[in-house]
Amino acid sequence: MDTKRLTGKNILITGAGRGMGATNAQHFAAMGANVCLGDLDLDAAQSMADEINAEGNGRAIAVQMDVTSRADNARAVAATVDAFGMINVGLFNAGLNKPRFFMDIDEDNWDLIMNVNTKAMWLGMQETARQMIAQGRQEYPYKLINVGSIASRKPLVDVTVYCTSKYGCLALTHCGAVALAEHGITVNGYAPGVVVTPLWEQLDKDLVDIGFKKREGQAYEDIVRDALQIKRVSYPDDVKGTAAFLASADSDYMTGQMIHIDGGWCIQ
Ligand SMILES: NC(=O)c1ccc[n+]([C@@H]2O[C@H](COP(=O)([O-])OP(=O)(O)OC[C@H]3O[C@@H](n4cnc5c(N)ncnc54)[C@H](O)[C@@H]3O)[C@@H](O)[C@H]2O)c1
């Protein structure tokens, strides 16, 4: 892909303070995009934005936001428009996991995961689309990009609520694609498998705590051996090319798709 393929795109990324969101922000800006990094953790988002600005490609700003708040989503969209003139792409990446076996799920576990992973995606999509519709149709489509997971298509017994939330992200991708096409907005997503980030490092510990694995690191080994065709875990750099493709004109004729970047897990 042309290394400056995202020049002229203004992109809001939620959960961009670390992990895959941060890597995508950096990569998008290196390809010419202006990026707004939204995160609960403003210090993390701001230091990533400072790094991006020091690199001298696309510009970056940081916004503190809780993605579960409609007002914060609206504020992040407004900050993007204030800084860069308009918004072209929204990447709804913020998410978390807290494993529980089915019979151990309680309301707190359910609400936490469903609110951050699914309700917040709906809010982000709606507030971003509201601004895109107000901007009017462009020659090229606006793009909403949803982060799903292998858990968008596989029933994993240790993370039922996470699966429910991520199946929800797939449904939002399909429904959003149908609902927003008339406004010149496409909706696609990507679905990672095991990506080494702070989220997975915490999950690895939590899986030992709930008794699903005997020791830290075992989950990675079991998944690589039993589930993956490509025999290694992945890193944010494995995901950034697909995210950039979905943000770029190369995906203009796609909508309603969730691309798996999971080492072949989903086909087994
Ligand atoms: N790591 C994996 O193996 C993996 C696999 C499949 C899908 N995913 C999905 O990818 C996305 C990114 O995951 P990651 O592994 O980079 O996670 P991460 O924990 O490394 O980063 C997530 C970021 O989201 C932010 N965040 C969390 N709750 C928030 C809230 N309420 N408001 C605003 N920001 C909030 C955090 O502060 C953090 O900066 C998530 O949606 C996750 O479910 C991850």
Question: What report would you give on this structure?
Answer:
By secondary structure, the chain is of the alpha/beta class. It has a single domain (10-193, 235-267), classed as Rossmann fold, CATH 3.40.50.720. It is built from eight helices and seven strands. It has helices at residues 19-30, 42-55, 70-84, 107-135, 160-180, 198-209, 218-226, 236-247; strands at residues 10-14, 34-39, 60-64, 89-92, 142-147, 185-192, 258-261. It has a seven-stranded parallel sheet with strand order 3-2-1-4-5-6-7, sandwiched between helices. Strand 5 (142-147), helix 5 (160-180) and strand 6 form a beta-alpha-beta unit. Helix 1 (19-30) runs parallel beside helix 2 (42-55), helix 1 (19-30) packs across helix 8 and helix 3 (70-84) packs parallel to helix 4 (107-135). The longest helix is centred in the middle third of the chain and has 29 residues, at 107-135. The relative contact order is 0.15. The chain binds nicotinamide-adenine-dinucleotide. Nicotinamide-adenine-dinucleotide binds next to helix 1 and helix 6. Nicotinamide-adenine-dinucleotide (NAD) binds next to helix 1 and helix 6.
Q: In terms of quaternary structure, what is this? A: single chain
Please identify the structural class as seen in this structure. Answer: alpha/beta
Which overall shape is indicated by the principal axes computed on the Cα atoms?
globular
Order of helices and strands: EHEHEHEHEHEHHHE
Stretches with pLDDT under 50, minimum 5 residues: none
The name of the CATH architecture is: 3-Layer(aba) Sandwich
